[in-house]
């Protein structure tokens, strides 16, 4: 089992719609969860971090964490063409500050 | 602006010819990481430095080495690049090596091996 798994893409959504990205992780002791956005040919850029169960909102982005289910998600509301990118889920290894990354979900927003 | 800088942005080398990639940071962070990312794959941690302490990942090939001469700079040396080493190499930093810390990435160096 991979440490971090993301729903396979690509995910295509129309402009203005909600894009929903999912991530599961294997280490029950993980405490820190991050979503990075990576444009093609570029490096990852942090868009959200979440540490507690529940929802965290930042502009059009909402991260949701459920530690009991070992599940973290990212919702992108009012999707824009500029949101077209690969979204990486990253989870800290238990008792460690190092991160394990998922392979990413590629989102395409259709104008 | 405080940032993570990588040079060069693109590097072409020949099979078996040693190559060095450079990373510098103005964030004054204690921890510097090197990741390898191949197309459509997750970034894979190769190793990291906590201050001067080097921490290698168990599955990182011996062909990959690193140096951190001071707080600001970190180098990735590939002693004998193979075709399978063609990838994007990402340098990242974090402040104190604690939980809940963000990792900040440089722009990456894309390595091509001929």
Describe this structure in words.
The complex is a heterodimer of chains A (111) and B (114). Chain A is mainly β and 111 residues long. In chain A, 0% of the residues lie in helices and 54% in strands. Chain A contains no helices and 11 strands. In chain A, strands 2, 4, 5, 9, 10 and 11 form a 6-stranded mixed β-sheet that branches. A 5-stranded antiparallel β-sheet of chain A has the order 1-3-8-7-6, with no helix packed on it. The mean pLDDT of chain A is 94. Chain B has 114 residues and is mostly beta strands. Chain B is built from no helices and 11 strands. In chain B, the strands form 2 sheets. In chain B, strands 2, 4, 5, 6, 9, 10 and 11 form a 7-stranded mixed β-sheet that branches. A 4-stranded antiparallel β-sheet of chain B has the order 1-3-8-7, with no helix packed on it. In chain B, a hairpin with a 6-residue loop joins β4 (31-37) and β5 (44-50). Chain B is globular and about 40 Å long. Chain B starts with a strand and ends with a strand. In chain B, 36% of the residues are buried.
**Individual helix count of chain A:** 0
Largest interface, by Cβ-Cβ below 8 angstroms: which chains and how many residues each? A-B, 24 and 25 residues
- Helix residue percentage of chain B: under 10%
Contiguous runs where pLDDT drops below 50 for at least 5 residues of chain B = none
Strand content of chain B: over 45%
The proportion of residues in beta strands of chain A is: over 45%
The CA-CA distance between the termini of chain A, in Å, is 37 Å
Number of strands of chain A: 11
Supply Rg of chain B. 13 Å
Reported for the largest beta sheet of chain B, the result is: 7 strands, mixed
The pLDDT mean of chain A sits at 94
Helix content of chain A: under 10%
Shape of chain B: globular
**Cα Rg of chain A:** 13 Å
Average pLDDT level of chain B: 94
Structural class of chain A: mainly beta
What assembly state would you assign to the polypeptide chains in this entry?
Answer: heterodimer
The count of β-strands of chain B is 11
Structural shape of chain A: globular
């Amino acid at each position: 089992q991979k440490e971090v798994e993301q729903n396979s893409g690509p995910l295509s959504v129309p402009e203005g719609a909600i894009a929903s990205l999912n991530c599961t992780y294997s280490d029950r002791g993980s405490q820190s969860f991050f979503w990075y956005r990576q444009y093609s040919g570029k490096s990852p850029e942090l868009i959200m971090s979440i540490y507690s169960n529940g929802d965290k909102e930042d502009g059009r982005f909402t991260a949701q964490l459920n530690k009991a289910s070992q599940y973290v998600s990212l919702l992108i509301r009012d999707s824009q063409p500029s949101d077209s990118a690969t979204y990486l889920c990253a989870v800290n290894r238990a008792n460690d500050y190092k991160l394990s990354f998922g392979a990413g979900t590629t989102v395409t927003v259709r104008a | 602006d405080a940032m993570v800088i990588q040079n060069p942005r693109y590097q072409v080398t020949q099979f078996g010819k040693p190559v060095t990639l450079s990373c510098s940071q103005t964030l004054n962070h204690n921890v510097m990481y090197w990741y390898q990312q191949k197309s459509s794959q997750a970034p894979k941690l190769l190793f990291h430095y906590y201050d001067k302490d080097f921490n290698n990942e168990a599955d990182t090939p011996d062909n990959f080495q690193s140096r951190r001469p001071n707080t600001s700079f970190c180098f990735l040396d590939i002693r004998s690049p193979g075709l399978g080493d063609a990838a994007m190499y990402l340098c990242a930093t974090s402040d104190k090596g604690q939980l809940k810390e963000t990792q900040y990435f440089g722009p990456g160096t894309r390595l091509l091996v001929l």
